[in-house]
Amino acid sequence: MGTCQCGPGYYGHLCEHACPPGLHGPLCQLQCDCMNGASCHPVSGHCICPPGYYGTRCHRVCEQGTFGEGCAEVCDCEDDALCDPVTGRCLCSSGKTGPRCDIDCRANRFGPDCAQTCECANGAECDRRNGRCSCMHSWIGLSCQEGGPPRLTSGSSRGDSQHSNSL
Known about the structure:
By secondary structure, this protein is mainly β. It has a domain of 48 residues. Helices cover 0% and strands 24% of the residues. The strands form 10 sheets. A two-stranded antiparallel sheet has the order 1-2. A two-stranded antiparallel ribbon has the order 3-4. The radius of gyration is 34 Å and the shape is rod-shaped.
């Protein structure tokens, strides 16, 4: 019994095996030239791109605003928020959150996707984008904990007059 003459993309005594990943062509002797985890067709060697990539070698990330297999899906994010080229998940800019990045951060939260907590004290307001505090009244400092309203010292309370009335 003779051996079979395998076509491109197959090997084995009866040509029963497809080329292993990363190889293609006659007797699976050619190396695939794909990037970003792409597989290649065992016969032709054409790259089969994973979601989020395109190009002959799957070397390009989906253009902004598209995602998924073949970059065929359109992102649905507000205010020009970027989206993940693989999943389409909106990547919220500072001060925004929600599936479409269309919700302002709630009080005391800031940053991309509102993931950080503000450190503002004494009634100060927190900027939803960068977390900077806007101090109230006479408070100062990064978190508005320095200064404050003037206080009477213990030696200057009423009735502690050191002046005498002598005639």
